[in-house]
Predict the structure.
Amino acid sequence: MTRTETYEERAKELFIDQPANMKLLIVVDKLLTGFDAPPCTYLYIDKSMQDHGLFQAICRTNRLDGDDKEFGHIVDYKGLFPKVENAIAVYTSELDHSAPGPDPEVLLKDRLEVARERLENALETLALICEPVEPPRGELEHIQYFCGNTEIEADLEARAPFRAELYKATASLVRAFANISADLNAAGYSEPEVARIRAKTDHYVKLREVIRLASGEVLDLKAYEADMRHLIDTYIEASEPRTISPFGELSLIELIVKSGIAEAINAQLGGLRGNRDAIAETIENNVRRKIIKEHLADPAFYESMSELLDEVIKLRKANAISYEDYLKRVADVAIRVQAGYSDETPVQLRNSPALRALYSNLTMKSAVDEETASDDARVELALRIDEAVRHVRSDDWRGHLARERSVKRALYDILLDDAEVERIFLIVKAQSEY
């Protein structure tokens, strides 16, 4: 191809496959027909068209692209909308109505009517999702409903569908509000109703953030990028940002480790200030999520951390310790969980998560006899297993039966026990170092 053709093909590929890296295409007499780009959401028309050409052009935005795209937008600079009805009439006159299945008729709907219906449905959906929350339905009650009881290890994961439903419904509300926010009065809302809708939207967006922080979940914001960009561009003016803290991108646990629990609470949980129980449960859920996430890589260590967290939670709920003492203890657990090892872990193993995991999970059964089960012997055994695995493992060995058997054979030569080989193999398999 020529340089021009090569450039155009590359630009189209980016627009279709990487819309975040190719957000805008400006074309002259191109791509109005036969161009399929599901991410395309906006079409700006500055060309006179009619009939099939007009209809095919506006259909460039009608492809769905995941849950975050329900329809496209046409920005008309040529006053073509009166011609759209005629274009649809011409198009539908050629449709085959005799074929089985749904009627292929193309219909026009009132934008404000549909937008109002979507907004009302989004608000009603969120009200139903939050209805089971116990009175007085403050932040703590919402955290307890969507994140569960911090004393029950499985509760956080068990409530994940509730949180996913809340996140999805809030995203739908943000989209619905953005599509009608400039025309609320024209859609038939009075000023008090407009104020109520804005307050409710703000409430649910803030609630989503509270639950996200409380559960320790980091969301992929791609699904909301277009809506957030629209709202920011439309309603917010700001000067260039000024960095006031080097910890802006850190998780709550990382912030506790780097700057201390007081600074972490102030930086990320400032909105919960004064609600000690809500702050406590947010910290506990973040630590619990980290334990659950890393558990397979080092079951023995993270089970001990889970027991330590349970003990701290029980002391807090029984009012057996002061709030300040509680913060010190839970911060200590968070620091250990983030580090991935305890004070008892030998220094020579601390820089390798794989060696730490082998050491903490090797038991007396792993050794030949009780004498060889000492700490020094466990260190030696961990080093031997690490060396053996690194020697026999192949590229992409996980999921490949023959390659996995080679690793197991190397483990058996050291452990001499089939059950122990299977147990340690799962830990080896979970290590990114291998």
